[in-house]
Specification:
About 50% of the residues lie in helices and about 15% in strands. By secondary structure, the chain is an alpha+beta fold. It has one domain: Haem-degrading domain (Beta-Lactamase, 2-Layer Sandwich), CATH 3.30.450.150. It has a four-stranded antiparallel sheet. Helix 3 (about 30-45) crosses helix 7 (about 145-160). The protein is globular and about 40 Å long. About 40% of the residues are buried.
């Protein structure tokens, strides 16, 4: 993705392609630890003030709050994860689908915006042949940067499996 495209954010087609491509062959507690540590490494290198969260189903397997993050980031993570669970797609893709229709998620979803946020940063952990088994989320940057950070980590993680 070019710098200009990154600034504008990925298109719906690009988001759908990411979700199709970034599927796991398995996902266990050790995988959550490795993915979480990779995200911490990426975010520390860039001094990103983020919170990171990885879950399988309802169980939180990894959480880290880097310097500069706050409890607000944890609240954003909860709201983004609820969107992934409800729609089975990344929080950014769900928000983009509403934007494509000229509407906002907050106005048109009929969901409580205090509980759901279709902002970038939460991504479904999808296992081939199984479906969505969990979520990985980052909060603390603008939504496009949160999303791109998660995608980069998943790409690197999948190269190492």
């Amino acid at each position: 993705m070019t710098a200009q495209a990154a600034a504008a954010g990925p298109t719906t087609a690009e988001l759908e392609e990411q979700e199709s491509r970034l599927q796991l062959t398995r996902f266990d507690n050790d995988d959550a630890w490795r993915l979480g540590c990779l995200l911490v490494e990426i975010c520390r290198e860039r001094s990103h003030p983020v919170a990171i969260d990885i879950r399988r189903g309802e169980q939180q397997l990894f959480h880290c709050a880097l310097p500069g993050s706050s409890a607000d980031n944890d609240a954003w993570i909860e709201r983004k994860i609820r969107v992934v669970r409800r729609y089975g797609e990344s929080s950014y893709l769900v928000g983009q689908r509403f934007r494509d229709k000229g509407a906002s998620f907050e106005e048109k979803s009929r969901l409580d915006p205090d509980r759901f946020a279709a902002h970038g940063g939460a991504f479904p952990l999808r296992v081939v042949g199984v479906g969505v088994v969990g979520t990985v989320a980052v909060s603390g940057l603008p939504q496009t940067a949160d999303h791109i950070t998660v995608v980069e980590a998943l790409e690197r993680f999948l190269q190492g499996i």
